[in-house]
Amino acid sequence: MPLSITDEQRDTLIAMAAEAKTKSYSPYSKFRVGAALLTKSGNIYTGCNVENASYGGAICAERTAYVKAVSEGDKLMVALAVATDADAFTSPCGICRQFVREFGTSTIVILTKPDGSFKETTVGGLLPDSFGPDDLGFETIEATADE
Ligand SMILES: O=c1ccn([C@H]2C[C@H](O)[C@@H](CO)O2)c(=O)[nH]1
Ligand SMILES: [Zn+2]
């Protein structure tokens, strides 16, 4: 059974991703990104992109949120919402796709626009035929749907 969230949880994630976007530290690109990540425990971790004068040192909003969750001991990822200022459904970059895939392919990904519209997919939808822990003989630690 695929993971699912309620409309209320989705609304909350979208609002929190938009709020997290306002914390973006992006003086170079001026491209603000916010993320909100719901874990199985019910916690929500937010993140924004944090850039650096050494440009390659930037971290995306999605990875910020994941790092906050994992470093608090939360690894069962249920749903991730992403917000930008663009009038398009900005999709996570390749590095983030691989990074989030580590913690499951079934995690729901909600891409949003500033007008509140959204598009729902999954990590596996964004990164099909992915390389992951399983390829190294490890099990992917991931959230599963409730019975
Ligand atoms: O999904 C994305 C795409 C880009 N960025 C950031 C990285 C950089 O700070 C800026 C421009 O690429 O946006 C994110 O945080 N998430
Ligand atoms: Zn990224």
From TrEMBL:
Cofactor dependency: Zn(2+)
Parts of the chain that traverse the membrane: none
GO molecular function, one term: cytidine deaminase activity
KW Hydrolase (keyword) present: yes
Annotated binding of Zn(2+), by residue: C60, C93, C96
Annotated active site: E62
Name of the protein in its database record: Cytidine deaminase
Top-level division of the source organism's lineage: Eukaryota
The entry's keywords: Hydrolase, Metal-binding, Zinc
Any GO BP annotation: pyrimidine-containing compound metabolic process
Domain CMP/dCMP-type deaminase: 8-134
Catalytic reactions of this protein: cytidine + H2O + H(+) = uridine + NH4(+); 2'-deoxycytidine + H2O + H(+) = 2'-deoxyuridine + NH4(+)
Function as written in the Swiss-Prot or TrEMBL entry: This enzyme scavenges exogenous and endogenous cytidine and 2'-deoxycytidine for UMP synthesis.
EC number(s) recorded for this UniProt protein: 3.5.4.5
GO cellular component: cytosol
UniProt: substrate binding residues: N49, V50, E51, N52, A53, S54, Y55
InterPro entries: CMP_dCMP_dom, Cyt/Deoxycyt_deaminase, Cyt_deam_tetra, Cytidine_deaminase-like
Gene3D superfamilies recorded: Cytidine Deaminase, domain 2
Phylogenetic classification of the source organism: Eukaryota, Fungi, Fungi incertae sedis, Blastocladiomycota, Blastocladiomycetes
Record family assignment: Belongs to the cytidine and deoxycytidylate deaminase family.
